[in-house]
Every structure is written in C-alpha cells, then in structure tokens.
Predict the 3D structure of the following.
Amino acid sequence: MATENQTKVAAATPKATGEATGADVVTRFAPSPTGFLHIGGARTALFNWLFARHHGGKFLLRIEDTDRARSTDAAIDAILDGMQWLDLDWDGETVFQFARAPRHAEVAAELLAKGEAYRCYLTQDELAAMRAEAQEKRLPFRVRSPWRDRDDGDPSVPHVIRLRAPQDGAATIIDKVQGDVTVQNAELDDFVLLRSDGTPTYMLSVVVDDNDMGVTHVIRGDDHLNNAFRQLALIRSMNWREPVYAHVPLIHGADGAKLSKRHGALGVDAYRDEMGYLPEAVNNYLLRLGWGHGDNEIISRAQATEWFDLAQVGRSPSRFDFKKLENLNGHYLREADDARLADLVAPRVEKLVGRALDSLDRDLLTRAMESLKPRAKTLDEIADGAIFLFQPDPLPVDEKAAEVLRASPEGLLAAVTERLRGLNDWTTEELDAAVRAEAEAAELGLGKLAQPLRAALTGRTISPGIFDVLLLLGRDVSLARLDAAQHFPAGA
C-alpha cells in the first residue's frame, strides 16, 4: 500500500510552550481505511484543512491502517478520491501508519527503559476475571496490573507492554471547543502499548505519529475526547510537546438521533455519484454544520479560509438536513459553468436514454444548461430535465402529458404548427410572436397553448420555457414532434 517515501514524516517537534501560530500550525486528518470517506469524516477533514490554510500552516493526511484485517486498498482509494473531489489537498506525501510500526515499537522500548512503561504478564483468563469483578461491583473496568510494581517477569514469556499511567492528581485539557475538561488520573488505566505479538496499539501509534509529524492542533470528533487524556499521559511520559485539542460535536440526524445511513451517513462518493451534488455545495454545507460566521449561509472557499477559526465552532451537535443541502446545491448549480455541468450531467443522461451522446449532443446539452439549471437542485434533476432533447422517435409521452394532449382543443396543435412552419427565422422573437398570435386567434391565454405545446415537444408537463424548448430542439425536430402529436390517439 505504501512506498518507502510515503512513510517519511517531518522530524519530531521539540517540546515547546504556547500555541503554535501562523506557518507553525500543523493539522492532520487521520481516517481508518475500513470503508468509504464518511460524511462526518469529511467535515473533520474540512475543519482541519481550513484551520491550517487560515493560518498559512500545513495540513497532513495519515491513513491509519493498523487494523490489517479490515483495512483495504479499495477503502484507501475511496478516501483519497473523496478528498480530491472535495478539493482538500494535503501537504507532503500520504503517511501510512502501519509502515511506521518499527518506530512505534521503538518508542515503547524507550518508555520501558525510562520506567514509564512495564512488561505485563496477565493472562486472558486473569483479565476476564478482573473484568467480571468490575462488572459485579458495577465499576468501570480499568487495568491496574500487579505487574506494574514487579520486575521478575521472564521477557521470553509472552507479555504486553503497558504505560505506567499516573495514579494521583488530575489532568486538564483546555479544549478549543469544549472548554476546560478535567479528568482524575485515577480514572485512567495502564493501557497496552505493544501487544504480545509485538505490534503497536492504535493509542501508541497515534501519539507517536502526531509527534513525529509535528502536529500542533488535533481537531477531531468529540467521541475521541476520552482518548485524549490517555494520549496526554503518553505524551507527558515522553516529555513531548502537547498539541492543542479541539473536539467537535458529532453530526446528528434531523431527528436528533446519532447519524446513521437513513439520515445521510454515507460516503461522500454517494453524494457525488448517487445523489448528484457538487463538491462546493457539500463543502459549504459541511462547513455550516457546527460552525458559523454571522448569518452567512453561502460561503465561498476563499471566505471560509479567511474566516474560519475554532472559536466559532459550537458545542452542541449539529443536525443533518437534506433540504438545506439541496437548496445550497441548487445555488451552486446556478453559479456553475455550463460546460462543466454538461460534462457532469452527460453520463446521467446517457444512462436515462440508453445511448451514448456524441459531440453534437454534448454541445446541445451545454447550450441547454442555461435553461435547465435554474429549476434543478441536483445533477440528476438536470439530467431528467434534459432527456427530452435526446429521446428517439416516437417520443415517449408520460400520463400527465397524454391527458393534456387529449384535452387540447381540436385543431389547435395543427394551427400553431402551421404558423411555426411558416417562420423565416427560428429565433426567440419570431417564435414568441407566432405562438402569441395563435393564442390570440384561438382566444386562449398563452399558458393554455403552451401546455399542449410542451406536452407535444417534450412528452412531459414540466420543462424549460416553451420558447427555449423550441430553440433547443430546432426547427426540424420541433415540427416533426408537433406533426406526430396531432395524431396522438384519443384513447391513449
């Protein structure tokens, strides 16, 4: 998975006092490659990216692939793809945690030599008995191994290495989001650093990597807040620089429950591929989930970079709302370049009409964007609105359009067709004048004539404006469809 140069990291940052600022700021995003890039993880990545870019510092990416049974290349590819789609570029090369296992073990050996860690020979049966006793007494299970104060173990016998965690006093984290949080050291356990097979645990690996990568600010979900105190004990045992912590409340569903797949807890690839959102809309929406700048809802990347700071991150969980995301996406669709949208929509149209679009089709789709995008909130809606341009003959007609055609006054379509056939120029002005003249001759409002025209030309009752439809289809296709519609069977 990793090449040699992908495992290199910055030199360890010496212990320092005060919070890093400016170019000294280093943040990281450290996903586990056991699945897609979760939407909550994407927000974490965004907050880290913005904080680093706001201060002119560095944003690093580390793949925490120590769980070999669950980590996959496909998941790594999905994470990298999601990051690139969201335009969250990282500095330097991707760090793969598993490849750094020798360094993690080296730190464990150093802690052991310093007396900050110890060899523990507790068996699984002994641990199970300790756990059962704690449950019986309704106490939290924390390992205080009798081997903490013994040194007569045989290193050749299978054992783990545990941190000699502090037992007295308290630790306080001045969290940038949660405020001051204090935990009594008696609540900490002597957690495992190296397993009996010599492999490092997640808790050790994270701390070593953060230090070696020079991470100054750890911005992550508040489900990691308890871990922070255990990690802090390890950091202090190594006399390393302590990072600034910011634990962000998790995202909940609209009903206030923990975010799940039914709420939108999907990979960012689903928002792109299955739901048709633009990355700038997803970024804008994720930014507003837990962070705000006054009453601003539409926030560009440049504005977000200028304004973002941790002081504006709220302490309460935010709620995921698809309607708000759709409204934002609609805004960004209207602002998007037409050629770019055509490239994104074309594969969706091809799937709907069952054929490939050629270069002329692509040009037509691009020209249609100005008419299609104002009424759409997703790329799928644009594609659905565009299929009338590429339908084969005979044009499929849905039930609502069929009702409109059946209810159309006899001879109306024939009359307007002949009036349109007589036009010298197929322009908006000429089309508008002809249709209005026919509506007046038939003593109908323009809408009463536009509806059967729309049904005949698109096979639907909803479409772009009727003159846009006529222009986009062109003279020949428009007249052919109107001729065919005059023979629409009354009972169809």
